[in-house]
Amino acid sequence: MEVIVLLCYILLSCICSAYSSQKVLVWILSIALISTLNFEPFISWMRLLNPEDYDGKSYYILMFTLALTHLRYTSFCLEHVEHVTGTSSLQQDTDTDKLYMEIETEIKDKQTDEMKFSLMDAFVYIFYFPLFFCGPIITYDEFSKQMNESTQKPLQEKQMISVAFFALRMIFWAFFNEFILHFFYFNALQHNLSVIEDMDLWTLSGIGYCQGQFFMIKYTVMFGIPSVVARTCGIEPPAGPKCIGHIYTYSDMWKYFDRGMYSFIKRYIYLPLGGSGANIIQKLLCSLGCFIFVYIWHGIEYYIFLWTLFNFIGISLETLGYWIDKQTAVCKFKDSMPGIYRRMQGLVVVPLFVMSVFTAFCFFGGSVIGYMYFQKFIVKGWLKSWSIVIVVVYCCMQSSMDIHDRQKMKKKRE
Questions:
Q1: How does the record say this protein sits in the membrane (predicted)?
Q2: Given 30, 152, 222, 223, which is the most exposed site by the fewest CB atoms within 10 A?
Q3: Residue 266 forms part of a structural domain
Q4: How confident is the model over 35-84, as pLDDT tens digits?
Q5: Is 354 a member of any domain?
């Protein structure tokens, strides 16, 4: 029954794209289909598909698989409409961007000539087994391009060595995850609120940091092991998450944690809505559209709403900050006193980072856990605890900025 449900979702979307030349109609159907995972009576009906699923594991796997499949068939249908109508997802405004768009269009034309849009091509893409259950997401244009190249260029010895080394890394982190789950209980503690309430500030901070690092390593393994199999076939999926220990901005967190989801949102939502424009209001409205989709896709729950809301606020404040940073007076101040500007930048980032931490706790453990951390650190905190938090976070921000600068210099040398 689960397979039949999955096929119905795919066939509906493919029929829509086959008989429609409007991306809007594809999106309407796409939102309608993903909404069936969030509302009754569809939820109860899907639970009935497996009556022996007493602990809810099969239901969770079905929901997760359908959600990932939703991104794939939406990508396929949007690429098909774009291929039929000749429209592009890219929208640029400046002269440099127009030149970039011309080059991109030439490359795109060559790729679309090689892209196929039959029902069998949809099944090959959507049911590509190595990435089917866990991801990461790869858009159809990139998948089709890499699939065509893999048939022409078999893996070389150097590439096989790289894949083998990457596989060893993933095996190590998989065993490390199991070790953590068996001997450390910081994830289980969030289910016992009375224990968390009695913890001091430093212990609570350590548990929160460990939860964030474990979440990153979990997704590193979850994306990494399927990527090993895909790379042996000549498919290069999006890389796994960057270490969150030195990411200090909302935009980098979204860009470098789930890179496949980021590519999907940027290509099919942000750019088509006009997010590349110079107008800051337009950028904020496009970001709002992206986060509305993120909220619906992750599940219409209160804690997901809080997580997406504060992420949107954080992204909006960063966008405003980047706009201020480009103003003439600020540029002159930055050039004349770079040290003072760097310290001011670190101080400005501190409250944004603290807000991102609280929203992450909401995502990890629900709104109750996020509210409890907020109560401990902010409401019940005193001047001493606030001072400690500000000083520690400020020092972490400066270290993260140094790491970021070194990575930028390394990329320039390459």
A1: Multi-pass membrane protein
A2: 152
A3: no
A4: 888 887 787 887 877 777 767 778 888 888 888 998 998 999 899 888 88
A5: no
